[in-house]
Structure formats: structure tokens, C-alpha cells
Give the backbone structure.
Amino acid sequence: MTVCKAVILIAGPQKGTRFRPLSLDVPKPLFPVAGIPILQHHIEACASVPEIKEILVLGFYPAHELSAFVQTMESEYRVSIRYLQEYAPLGTAGGIYHFRDQIRAGNPDAFFVLNGDVCANFPLESMLEFHKSKTKCIATMMATEATRQQSVNFGCIVEDKKSHSILHYVEKPETYVSTLINCGVYIFSQQIFQMLQTVFQSKQSEYYTGMPEMDSSKRDAIWLEKDVIVPLAGTDTAFVYQTTNWWSQIKTAGSAIYANRHYLSLYSRTDRSSRLAVTKDAGPTIIGDVFIHPSAKVDPDAVLGPNVSIGKNVKVGAGTRIRESIVLGNSVIGDHSLIIYSVIGWSSIVGDWTRVEGTPDDPNPNKPFAKMENNPLFNSSVSGQLNPSITILGGHVVVPSEVIILNSIVLPHKELGGSYKNQIIL
């Protein structure tokens, strides 16, 4: 039987700045989407593959921020899980090289690598079968189709249509190369470590021979995309596994709402359907896919859904309507309020008869293969104007009764005094 490991790359606190203010209270990988942390979705996908015997989480978050979570995941999924803290930001492959002994321990036949900022219906088992079917395969990359216009925002792959060998790879090209894009999910054989050692020694040599432009903080950083995949392209040792499953990135706070919708939909189509709420005689009205934490208290007159996640110890008042939103733990939503396309932060309070509404930033439904746009916060053509986006309340925000908060971002610990539209409230 094939023995595999999985490596999940979660970067660190210096990354994920576009996810603020949601990442100010918890590390981005622990932000709950569809009721469970983003990282747990990755672990759940890996734990469902029988060949994966150990999961290694690599990043440079302080270990104490993830230790309790890792222990919980180990006991829940009955698989060995360890967090390995990098001493500095090492790029997408630097941590793999640094912790090579831990990855190679037990002599696994291959190991998965998953970027922590992607979300998907991960087809890991079929991808592994594809990897095993190829001879002399060093790397298999998961790919999906994008639109011609959006493809330049991703790593683009040119493949041999018959063998699925990677002929050419360019990371975020300046002009169109291919509509086949890198999903940030890989399988590698142990031969990859010889390549990483060569790259590492080359970078050290450049630094110590006095390359003036070499930043000392970057001399240990190695990148899978340009240092591994690019050299492997055209060698018949790297292959592309194309999937039509749902896939997206979680780069911005707005993308959390999109990911929430799709993960809830996945629950309804898999053996995780027990996580979804249903309408009961003495309970609230449920429309579509909704997650409600068992400790939450939702008034029977409330209407939730579709695509809503209600966190731990949340209270939702009578007559309140919530859809396409995430309400985080210990928040209170008053009576007869409306929450649409919004994220309500931890321990926030929304008053009665209040409207909190955002604008969705979903892929164009009329374009096949369209992906989530990670638009900037501000409109570059109109100085200082905020692009319409979902509304985000940071943690411990108080919104009074009978006001409207529209397309706005509120930083933590703010007590609002009235209505706001298209603003960032500092």
C-alpha cells in the first residue's frame, strides 16, 4: 500500500493583510468558514485519504496560537498532525526543505502539498491515483480552467494534451499563456529534495560570494512555483491533474462569504450533511444551506439562509433575517434586523431594526470558468473611493438600533453612532 504524508502551508502573520480586519482576532487559517476553521477543511480532506498517515502544518505563526487547535484535530480525525514553526518566512518551498527530515521520516512514497489560502472540493484520492499511474513522476500539480482574462493573475500551465505532461509554466504572466491555472495543490516524490538542496546551495553561494542585491532575509526562501515547477517543465517528470471541481482562493475578507457558500453546499452533497440546520417546529425558518452552532440561540421567528453560518454562543433576535453571511462567536443580533452579504465579528452587537448589508463580489455567472476577483480595497480610477464590497464588522463592534451600515468596513472595538455607507470606520 502507498504511504503518503500531507504538508499544509499556512504562511504567517505578516501575510494575509488583505484579510483584515478578520485576521486581527485570530490567525487567518483559523478563521471559521461554514462553521469550521479554513485549515480544518484542508485537514478533513487529507484525513479522508487512507494513504495519508501524517499531516504536517508549516508556517511561522507562533506555536502557541495553533497548539490547542492541532490537538483537537488529532483527536477528531485520528491521524498524526504536527505544527512545524519556521524560523522566518521561507517561501512556499523553503519550509519543505528546512523540515525535510520530518517529511521523509518513515520513507513515504509521496507527499501532498496544499496551499493554506485555497478552498476547494479537493479530489485528493483521484489525484493520487493519477500520480501513481505516471512513470518517473516527480511532481503532479492540480489545475483548473480559468477565463482568458483572469488567467494572468495565476500560475499558467501549458500541457501535453495526451500525456498531461507540463511543457511550460509561468507564474502570473504579463500576457496570455494558457487558461489552465495552478490550484496550489501538489503531489511530490522524494526526488524533489535533491532539487531543493541544489536551489538552497545556489542561493547560499550567491549570498556569500557577495551578490549586492541579495537580501539576507530572503536567502533561505525557496519557491515551489519558480524554483521547482519551472525547471521541471518540459522534462516529462511533472504532470498536471485537471479538475472540474469547485476551487477558489481565500485572499480577501470578501472571498470568505463565497467560500462559505460553497463549503455549505459541499456539506449537503457529502456525508457531512448532519452539520446543516433544518427547519423544526420550535425553531427558526431555514432556507437553503445553513450552519448553526449547537450553543447558538436563534429565535423561532428568525429566518436564516441561504448560505449562513452562525457561530458559538451567538444570539439572534425575533423577526431577524440573515442571508449570505457569517456571524462569528458571542455576537448578538437584535430583533427585526437584516444582515445580508456581511461578516459580523466576534462579540459584536447589532441593535434592533438595523440593516447591515454588503455587495457580493462573486465570479461572473455568465462566464464559464470565471474565478473570484480579488479586487483592491480602493478604486484606482476614483481617488479615495471605496470599491463596493461585503460589509465587515470587526470584533467587539457595537451598532445601534435603527441604522443602516452599507458596504462598509468597521475595525474592532468601535461603537457606531449612526448610519454609514461606503466607508472604512477606523
Remarks:
- The helical segments are 38-47, 67-77, 91-98, 100-104, 124-133, 192-208, 224-232, 253-269.
- The first strand starts at residue 4 and ends at 11.
